[in-house]
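# nightly structure sweep
# worker-07 picked up a monomer target from the shared queue
# config: single-sequence mode, recycle default, output format = structure tokens
# input follows
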Amino acid sequence: MQAEFLNSDLVKQQASMAGFDRVEEYVVQLIERDRERLAILQGLEEARAGKVRPLEEFDREFRERHSIDMDVDMDSAR
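# output follows
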């Protein structure tokens, strides 16, 4: 079932102005963008609440998980 707002001229115009041929594609993109924003906000809230860990700890675990040599400087590897 398709929501009525998808057929509104305003939404069709917004989709077109955003470069989308179909309103459905535009709406999916908006939903994905909102999901990303919510994830960022959640991360910020967790950081404010002190739910963080040292970068060195994360870096060590990340390198181990992805088999990256501990001696490789990630900044110079770019």
